[in-house]
Amino acid sequence: MTQATDIRRVGQLHTALALAANGLPPLPLRAGKVPFGNCRTCKGNACGGRPNMKTPGPCTCPGVCHAWAAATTDPNVLNSPQWEAAWRQAAAVAYHPGGAGLTVVDLDNAAAIAWAREALPSTRTVLTTRGEHWIYRGVMPSRNNARPGVDVKSLMAYARWLGRGTGAMAVLPDAVRALALTDPPAARRTPQTLSAPLGGQSGVCRHRSPEFLDRGIAMAEQSITGAREAVHATVYRTFLAVLSTHGRCGCLTDTHVARLFTAAQAKGETPRHCTDAWTNALTTLGL
Questions:
Q1: For the whole model, what pTM was predicted?
Q2: Could you please report the per-residue DSSP string of 14-47?
Q3: Does residue 206 contact residue 198 with C-beta atoms inside 8 Å?
Q4: pLDDT tens for residues 101-142?
Q5: Which terminus of the chain faces fewer neighbouring Cβ atoms within 10 Å, N or C?
Q6: 185 pLDDT band (50/70/90 cuts)?
Q7: CB distance 100 to 137 below 8 Å
Q8: What is the Cα–Cα distance from 167 to 170, expressed in whole angstroms?
Q9: Are 178 and 255 in contact (CB under 8 A)?
Q10: Interior CA angle at 95 toward 126 and 113, to 5°?
Q11: For residues 116 and 166, is the Cβ–Cβ distance under 8 A?
Q12: In the prediction, which pLDDT does 115 show?
């Protein structure tokens, strides 16, 4: 090991330990800003420890393994002899945003930054080599190329550590959550003609009360988030319940649909599963 390599290793390890102490799970990055992949034993997740890499945490095999899922706040793992070779090879330090309850909106160019300033609430900002990282409190499914020049990094993803940044950190907005959706179904915004009034209110749609609708969406999110088994069935039943109550009056918006899809994807559902469940619920109800 050369003196320069040793100095770099010590500096990166010091950074990683500081991040871990503050609740940010770090991991080393190789040249090209890529993480260490699975070792031979765990290739293709053959070890069975983390199917599809949905559960973060250190691997029991020697060295750094499982890419982003290697991120850990355990100083004994970070400073272990098994990780020493990785720190010698590392070119940078990254962290798992979702593991710290955060979401990073990675803006790669000036146009993406201009869009964010127009569409998103201001939050903590970190300068990058090509643009900016906007960091929010809250987790969501990650998505690359969410829009031109924009990646979303939260669950099952990593972001390079480039410093603390500036500004107060805001709560994750619905506008960012909606970026995780893949071709979400169009929500009906125009009231539809009903054959009978709802709730006996002389034809006035009770769902026009924001409180009633918001409470219904919040309960649906809780139902999905609290599912311990049969997630597919829970998501479908919840979509069906929401649409049976709110689907005929036109008060559902894309933002409401995005909240439901985000809750489902946080439980491991794919965008395709969400779209299929929503479509099936619409068909069942004849909407």
A1: 0.62
A2: HHHHHHHHTT--EEEEETTTEE----TTTGGGTT
A3: yes
A4: 999 999 999 999 999 999 999 999 999 999 999 999 998 888
A5: N
A6: very low
A7: no
A8: 9
A9: yes
A10: 30
A11: no
A12: 94
Residue 55 is which amino acid? T
Helix 271-285 × helix 231-246 angle, to 10°: 50
Q: What is the pLDDT averaged over residues 209-227?
A: 82
Q: CB neighbours of 270 closer than 8 A, spacing ≥ 6?
A: none
Return the closest-CA partner of residue 216 out of 245, 247, 190, 194: 245
Contact 249, 194 (CB under 8 A): yes
What is the Cα–Cα distance from 38 to 47, expressed in whole angstroms?
10
Neighbour-count burial of 89, counting CB atoms closer than 10 A to its CB (0-12 exposed, 13-18 middle, 19+ buried): middle
- The CA angle 53-257-173, to the nearest 5 degrees, is 70
**Dihedral sign (CA 139, 145, 150, 151):** positive
The pair of structure tokens assigned to 225 is 């988030």
The pair of three-digit structure tokens given for residue 248, joined into one six-digit string: 């005929």
Please report, as a single letter, which amino acid is at residue 170.
A
Decide if pLDDT at 54 tops 60: no
The alpha carbon of 145 is separated from its chain's Cα centroid by a whole number of angstroms, namely 13
